[in-house]
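thread from #wetlab-drylab

HS: before we spend reagent money on co-crystallization trials with 2,6-diaminopimelic acid, can we at least see a predicted complex? here's what I'd submit
DV: go for it
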Amino acid sequence: MPIHFHKMHGLGNDFVVIDERNAPLRLSPARISALADRRRGIGCDQFVTLSQATAPGALALVRFFNPDGSEAGACGNASRCVASLLSAETGQSDLTIQTRGGLLTACVHPAKEEGRATVTVDMGLPRTGWQDVPLAYAADTLRLPLDGEPAALSMGNPHATFFVQDLAEAERGPALEMDPLFPDRANIGFARIDASDRMRLRVWERGAGFTLACGSGACAAVVNAARRGLADRRMTVEVDGGEMLIAWDDNDHVQMTGPAQLAFEGTVDPEAYPK
Ligand SMILES: N[C@H](CCC[C@H](N)C(=O)O)C(=O)O
């Protein structure tokens, strides 16, 4: 049976969003991977499903899948996109979504253009324990025992941030994702601090490769920079696809503000893809 999907993006980090709140689809990882394929499927950096929330007050349970079929506990850019969809559906500008990483509240700012919104998501508390990331063994998450001494934390998904002068170092991303220090693999960020309130960031995403933007990676990079005393708690993060504003508030929650854009809608028959 053909199903409806939204194709959306946040700063070029792109998503297929499927609403299965009324009819659970139970797509297998192989099928998600096939649908996410850019040549043989619809193509996306993350495949996103909305199902019935189990937490009171949440509008949907939102799950994020990488093109390799693995599941991520958090995705900042997709959270903004889903919030804008649910806001259009309900008329609410403040809303809550449930993710594997926890409950997230979002504020959808009044749209200036059709199909494009600016959204702030409270991405919650960064978790800096070595078991939170997780790491394979106890180590200081402020300076991991790896060449370049990245800092690591969880935003609901694992991130390591390297502070570099030259973004060409990002070519180390693929090998670092698989480093034995990260039993669940990790998203690997390379941040160049350009001013106390500005950084340039590239992220090699676990299960997805380089993307034009990584919201949770931007949150992690700003928190890690502040923890290391390298920059302010509020920064503009420039990624390949544009800019996000990240603020690590006094209550330690991380607020992420950026765009959410609808590209197109369509229908697809999942049965036509390998199981
Ligand atoms: N693009 C996403 C992150 C996806 C993370 C995923 N690659 C993982 O395995 O954790 C973001 O905007 O936060």
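DV: The first helix runs from residue 29 to 36.
HS: ok that's useful, forwarding to the group
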